[in-house]
Amino acid sequence: MANYESLINQQINQNRAGLLVVDENLNPALINSCDGWHALTNRFDQHNDLLSRGWSCTFSDFVWPGSFKAEVLVCRISKEKAVVNHILNLAAEQLKPGSKVILLGDKSEGIKSYAKNGQKRLGGIREEEKIGGDSWKIELSVGSVIGEPLDDQKYPELREIENVGKYTLFSKPGVYGWKKIDKGSQQLIERLPQMLEATLPLGDIRILDLGCGSGYLTVASCGPTTHGVATDNNAAAVMATCHTIEQAGLNIETVVSNAGEELESGFDVILCNPPFHSGFGIDYDLTDRFSKQAARLLTNDGIACFVVNQHVPLKRIASAYFHVVELDLDSNNFCTYKLQKPKR
After folding, report:
1. Which residues of the chain have pLDDT under 50?
2. Which one of 47, 66, 117, 319 has the lowest number of neighbouring Cβ atoms within 10 Å?
């Protein structure tokens, strides 16, 4: 795979004013900041990292940053097709004729299809350059007449996904697995009464949904007297969870954070289905980060209830932060764990 950060730096050096789209696939430490350039990201950790490195940056669910004018938009393509098509639609709406869109990605990630469809949408010319192995750089120009919008699954819109008891789960493109309820999260909810020795919905306790996605764990477990926080790093997830909780009328605050890093401790129960993918790859460092923060945020007598894919070595990872890491159930697909007695 090519060093996409190096290619981005070349574009920054060659263009006075540009918009860099950043999701989880890029490392901000390897990207040079420059006056005239602005970053747009839907990841809170990336936003903070970019700001710390001198970037002008907007954190949003890929909403165009106000009145910013760009000569070029650079995008390392995302894992989700709806996100890439949404970015191309934004470019067609916001960039002037003669402006450029630079797409970077691998053939196996769909870069060639994005090149063809992007050219139709932007109405200009297309240049393709193989940059080693399976990796490509696509340069698209914006024409005087743009084409029809690409199918972005109505990206900005929240929609009903499924009923969860008496509540409704809302979600949208940009949230991982947004079209359905995650099977691992379902297993965690099914096992929760045994893990906590309590009936659902839960009562007057302080709860944290760590990495909340669309808010399923919250609405499936919490009752009217339950209070606490649901948090995520992804702007789309925070938006979806906030709407889900508001419609349910629950006393749960929705907060954006980097795996809970910005939150204060004191939770009696933590529910977590931690991500183990970062972009196109597997990243167990995420499991470590969520385990570490759960230990910090949990009360001494609290219980953190995790669910992970069977191959994720949670017991080994979480044992660095908890005295007790107990396997609750291995269903051959997912494993639920009770984490107790955080190491201080």
Report:
1. 277-278
2. 66
